[in-house]
């Protein structure tokens, strides 16, 4: 059995080889990206070398910023620090990037009662966790499966290891299998781990309180493979994460898909210092479509780099999106200090609507939304749409009080809806300064 599990190690890259301080690091391969997990012991700069085994003409490292590196005879040499999450891209090809994911080493907690050691490959299926459980995935450990906890307190999942979901995939239609599902839990901590190729959503707190997701990497190719779904939860911190998904990267919802308790208000949610790549489906930072609650409020996205938000083609994809499909009032939402490097469909897409996901007969509201220090630095200048809703009974739901401050595209300030390439319907009090 152990020999069979050893054969289930992720495929290695044929395009890239990586070393950290002169020591080789495994580079794993997926159909649309390769990735290396670089684990360091302190905050000092670390020398990283990348050998690229094919010819190319242009290399870009995202997020875009000034950084020192050399490129000679196909070998890229640079320095990284703990917390750096970079995408190395060749000739604009978005299906063969290299993700360099640098994290500080996490030692085994003294109270860890589920330990997966370095060098091991383990299949856990769907592991149920209880109050007080601490899961440790040591750097170099590979775990196939998922974790779930119901009505538990004090759950911790930590370490620098790899959680893989490919063995959980089933032919469609299949049951929803979430990589990390927490229902009605309190004080949940997830840190350091890398989640790859889940069959559905990846980190999902449902009707939870006091949840922290820190320095987590999520890489998935699957449609409906959302990154982090905050469902009817409160007091949630998402910090320092790298998320490359083929659906929503970070999303706040209220729904009953996994349990009726998910139809609770969502509030006090902060996502910061993250790098997001939204592929062909979904959105980068989404609220909705499912908003079956009284309110979703006090949600902040700040200091985030959106390196790609690819073309969806179904007229709903975008970078900043609120799709209010149920009765909830979405308000007191802030977007601050965010750079956008490649938005191929829409920049802002706010809508009150009746969608295929709607369950409430009543439509909700969108109001009190603040944008500050938003900069589209490269790529297309995408349009934006803000639209209210009018029912068949002529009942109107107006989107109101949307404020843009220090909003630039390619270095040019955006001062009104025309210079923002923005369509407004059934809106009021949309201002620029």
Instruction: Tell me the structural class.
Output: mainly beta
What share of residues is helical? under 10%
How would you sum up the global shape?
A: globular
With helices defined by DSSP (H or I, 4 residues minimum), what is the helix count?
1
Share in β-strands: over 45%
The overall pLDDT, averaged over residues, is 94
Number of strands: 40
Sheet with most strands: 28 strands, mixed
Unreliable stretches: none
- What is the distance, rounded to the nearest whole angstrom, between the alpha carbons of the first and last residues? 64 Å
Rg computed from alpha carbons, rounded to a whole number of angstroms: 21 Å
Task: Map the helices and strands.
Elements: H1 2-6, E1 16-20, E2 23-25, E3 28-29, E4 34-40, E5 46-52, E6 59-62, E7 69-72, E8 75-80, E9 85-90, E10 98-104, E11 114-116, E12 121-129, E13 134-137, E14 142-150, E15 153-159, E16 162-164, E17 180-183, E18 186-191, E19 194-196, E20 203-206, E21 209-214, E22 217-219, E23 228-231, E24 234-239, E25 242-245, E26 250-254, E27 266-278, E28 285-291, E29 295-309, E30 320-324, E31 329-340, E32 348-352, E33 365-376, E34 384-387, E35 389-390, E36 396-397, E37 399-409, E38 412-413, E39 422-425, E40 427-432
Parallel strand pairs: 4-10, 11-13, 12-14, 13-15, 14-16, 14-17, 15-18, 16-19, 17-20, 18-21, 19-22, 20-23, 21-24, 22-25, 23-26, 24-27, 25-27, 26-28, 27-29, 28-30, 29-31, 30-32, 31-33, 32-34, 33-37, 34-39, 37-40
Antiparallel strand pairs: 1-2, 1-5, 3-4, 5-8, 6-9, 7-8, 9-10, 35-36, 37-38
